[in-house]
Amino acid sequence: MNEIILDIANSLALPRWKVENAVELLEEGKTIPFIARYRKEKTGELNEIQLREISDALEYAKKLSSRKDEVLRIIEEKGKLTDELEASIKGAKNLQLVEDLYLPFKSKKKTRADKAREKGLQPLADFLKSSRIKDEVFVFTFINAEQEILKLEDALEGARDILAEEFSQEVAVREKLRSLLKEKGIIKSSRTEKEDEREVYRDYYDFSQPISRLVAHQILALFRGEREEIISLKLELPYDILPTLRDLLGWRDYLAYYEELIEASVDSFSRLLMPSIEREVRNLIREEAESRAIHVFARNLRDLFLQPPLGEKVVMGVDPGYRTGCKLAVIGKDGSLLYHDVIFPTPPKNDYVGSSMKVVQAINTLNVELISIGNGTGSRETELFVSRLIREHNLPVKYMIVTESGASVYSASKVAIEEFPDEDVTTRGAISIARRVQDPLAEYVKISPEAIGVGMYQHDVNQSELKRTLDREVESVVNLVGVNLNTASEHLLKYISGLNSRAALNIVKHRAENGAFRNRKELLKVSGLGPKAFEQAAGFCRIINGSEALDGTSVHPESYEIARFILESVELLPEELFDRKDEITELLDQIDPEALARENSFNQITVREVIGMLKKPGLDPRGELEKPILRTDVLSMEDLSKGMELEGTVRNVVDFGAFVDIGVKQDGLIHKSKMGRRVRDPLEVLSVGQIVKVRVLEVDTKRMRIGLELLSGSNESRS
């Protein structure tokens, strides 16, 4: 483990002691959110990103070690393990090198080289690759009628087969070709005879690009096009690499049988080496593209989950549609269903009068404050109906467009059935759209993260890795925000550090049977929740107006003594934290954390962190973010003109730019070249849910495209 820790520290450029302590905590089963927030003094204030990198590196190191042991065992069982080979395998720094070293010993179908060896031609192959003098007499000794080697060429052909296989299995040769193909290689695509009805892959019918310049969305599009047999792909180098590869093995022209070596290497390259390395490089660039796509999805998901809640409002959710109508669901301030119906304001029925009567009556009777419209099929026609209704009836409501990604998944899920057993899937979908406004995080956690469409090519990537990454991101967000222990659902609680689905369910059951939790310590009374789980979960679970005032903060119970000492030093009682919020910061700013820690033998980092938590008791970090745009009227694409300046909401961020809802039927695109400065990664500039000011550059009503430019003052990311 010491060697692993040193390697991780060196690769991440972190002090060894920080990595060592972080690994120790991870090996104890502590979660990353817990370590990042409550073990800063032990890790030297490593953040979540650094801890994730350490965790991933540790996981890879364990996988590498396990694979080395397995490969060594297999080779030893075959009786072919030498001291040199063992040292090479043990010293390998990555899985690829281990696999390269293992390649000659893999069980496989009998090859042409195997058959040549069985005929006794290995010595001849060794002679050809090393001799500086021609010795035809020696070569002729390999003619053997019993082995069907009837002439000189038969012997040479078999020897070349052996040489070709050896050439393709040489570690140095494979590493060189692999790196050159990735750095200097070109990917080419051409159209097949299969029909591409919508011309989805038109850009790739005759495409050529250096592999090093490909971006993730291009790679994923190319491989998808190949899978659908619309295009064919090949990787190639722009020059002859074989002389360089032969030189690596000392196959040079001063050798007597150099021509035989050339022929063997040419055969090896086309038949064995290039197909194998091409597969590896294809897998490598695909994995890198998938990793990037997963990163984009995770970042967008995080920003979506951190959308600020609009709180306790009566909300009407509208799930738009055409033939089957628009589903309505009015949700009370507590999230309960008050009313649901179906209206038909959109084509083909266009029932404006009948639909208006239902909506106006519901708004007036139930005191609806906000209308939430899903952004799916029929969304803009529904928006036109709602905006007209507000204007004509002078209704005291506003509306907003929300993503309905995952609403259909939720509506048919076990969770939705348990919540609303008497409603159909369409009503549950409208309920979800409404409740996303009240508290996006609480609603989105009920849906499998990968079903929420804020990514790029999410169906083309490794699904298990996608799920792992997204679950980790959701865990991070839920713990960042924290939960109210007396109101949080099991779907939120299961993401809290130290808890799982069973523990979350037991907490909800305990709450139902015994009433509200009065303090954090009562968590220990929950079935199956022991001291270890309590240690990790307690700080993220808040209790408002309980028997312990500090339970309403993010201060961990283990630091209550320090928290009380800090408060006493400025003559504050814990019970006053929530009543004197305006004074707290000013009072706590009088404290010198270093001096207080030194004089009382407290840890300086812990003191500084506790002071920060006390300054913002019960803070929901989402409250500091921009609230979504609420509208009362709508534009059409025909209303837009070049140069018009508008305000909009970022809906999705991808590698080439960001899609922005500016209140018309079609989202506009801010290409990354139009973000006010040279932008390599749009995620560095914009985030999902961010409110931005844009200028219209282009309106193409025929192709339903809007080109936008980000205006200065909008290009600071919220995250």
TrEMBL record:
<dbReference type="InterPro" id="IPR010994">
    <property type="entry name" value="RuvA_2-like"/>
</dbReference>
<dbReference type="GO" id="GO:0003735">
    <property type="term" value="F:structural constituent of ribosome"/>
</dbReference>
<dbReference type="InterPro" id="IPR012340">
    <property type="entry name" value="NA-bd_OB-fold"/>
</dbReference>
<dbReference type="InterPro" id="IPR055179">
    <property type="entry name" value="Tex-like_central_region"/>
</dbReference>
<dbReference type="GO" id="GO:0005737">
    <property type="term" value="C:cytoplasm"/>
</dbReference>
<dbReference type="InterPro" id="IPR050437">
    <property type="entry name" value="Ribos_protein_bS1-like"/>
</dbReference>
<dbReference type="GO" id="GO:0006139">
    <property type="term" value="P:nucleobase-containing compound metabolic process"/>
</dbReference>
<protein>
    <submittedName>
        <fullName>Transcriptional accessory protein</fullName>
    </submittedName>
</protein>
<dbReference type="InterPro" id="IPR006641">
    <property type="entry name" value="YqgF/RNaseH-like_dom"/>
</dbReference>
<dbReference type="GO" id="GO:0006412">
    <property type="term" value="P:translation"/>
</dbReference>
<dbReference type="InterPro" id="IPR018974">
    <property type="entry name" value="Tex-like_N"/>
</dbReference>
<dbReference type="Pfam" id="PF09371">
    <property type="entry name" value="Tex_N"/>
</dbReference>
<dbReference type="Pfam" id="PF12836">
    <property type="entry name" value="HHH_3"/>
</dbReference>
<dbReference type="InterPro" id="IPR012337">
    <property type="entry name" value="RNaseH-like_sf"/>
</dbReference>
<feature type="domain" description="S1 motif">
    <location>
        <begin position="643"/>
        <end position="711"/>
    </location>
</feature>
<dbReference type="InterPro" id="IPR032639">
    <property type="entry name" value="Tex_YqgF"/>
</dbReference>
<dbReference type="InterPro" id="IPR003029">
    <property type="entry name" value="S1_domain"/>
</dbReference>
<dbReference type="Pfam" id="PF22706">
    <property type="entry name" value="Tex_central_region"/>
</dbReference>
<dbReference type="Pfam" id="PF00575">
    <property type="entry name" value="S1"/>
</dbReference>
<dbReference type="InterPro" id="IPR023319">
    <property type="entry name" value="Tex-like_HTH_dom_sf"/>
</dbReference>
<dbReference type="InterPro" id="IPR041692">
    <property type="entry name" value="HHH_9"/>
</dbReference>
<dbReference type="Pfam" id="PF17674">
    <property type="entry name" value="HHH_9"/>
</dbReference>
<dbReference type="InterPro" id="IPR044146">
    <property type="entry name" value="S1_Tex"/>
</dbReference>
<dbReference type="InterPro" id="IPR023323">
    <property type="entry name" value="Tex-like_dom_sf"/>
</dbReference>
<dbReference type="InterPro" id="IPR037027">
    <property type="entry name" value="YqgF/RNaseH-like_dom_sf"/>
</dbReference>
<dbReference type="GO" id="GO:0003729">
    <property type="term" value="F:mRNA binding"/>
</dbReference>
<dbReference type="Pfam" id="PF16921">
    <property type="entry name" value="Tex_YqgF"/>
</dbReference>
